[in-house]
Amino acid sequence: MKPALVLLHSLLLGPLTWAPVAAKLRALGAATVVPSLVHVADADDPPFWPRIGAAVKDSVSHLPQDQPIVLVAHSNAGLLVPVVVQAAGRPVVGCLFVDASLPSRSGPTPAASPERLAYLRSIAAEGRLPQWTTWWEENTVAPLFPDPRTRSMVSAEQPRLPLSYYEQQFPVPPGWDHRPCGYLLFGPPYDRMAQDSRTRGWIVGEVPGCQGWVRPAVQSK
C-alpha cells in the first residue's frame, strides 16, 4: 500500500498554507492529509507537544490501519517530527523537511533559541504573542502572498501562541530518524539547515526562486 503524505504546517500559521500543495498531490492520486494544529495551544497549559502528536494521530485515524505515512514538515513544525513519529500510531516510512527547522541530533530540542526567546518576550502581551504576520513591516509581509484574498485567508487562521509555547523543549526519541529523511530548500534563511541535513547524510533538494516564508502555498501555484 502506498504511503499517505501528512503535511504539517508551521505552528504560527495554519493548514491553508499547505492547501494548494495538498490539492495538487491529491490530483496526482496521492493520499494526502493536512492536520490542523491551530488549536493545540488554545489553553496556556504546557507542554504542548503531546497535543500535537495526538492531533496528528487523530487526523490519520481514517486511513487503513496498515497504511504507512510520510511526514512533510514546514518551518517550525520540523522540530516536532520526532514527537509525531513516536505518536503516529502507524508506520512512518519517511520524513521530509520543507524550509524547516531541524530537531536536535540528540537530547531535547528548545522551541526557540535564547536570542529568539528574548525577542518574543519583548512582543508578548498578557502571555500571548501577536499573530505572526504582524511581527514584520508591511513591505516585508506583502510579498509573501500572491494576492490579497490569499493573505486574508491565511492571516485569519493564524493563532496567537502563548509565550510558554516557545519556553518548552521537544523530546527527541532515539531512533526517530531510522527511516529515509530529506530536506527541500527554497532559499534563505534555511541554507544552514540544508547544510546540516547533508551532514546527517540526508538527500537535499533545492527549488530556487521562491521568495517569502509562506512558501508551500505560493510555490505550488
TrEMBL record:
SUPFAM superfamilies listed in its UniProt record: alpha/beta-Hydrolases
GO molecular function, one term: hydrolase activity
Keyword tags: Hydrolase, Signal
N-terminal signal peptide: 1-19
Name recorded for this polypeptide: Alpha/beta hydrolase
Record organism: Micromonospora sicca
Taxonomic path: Bacteria, Bacillati, Actinomycetota, Actinomycetes, Micromonosporales
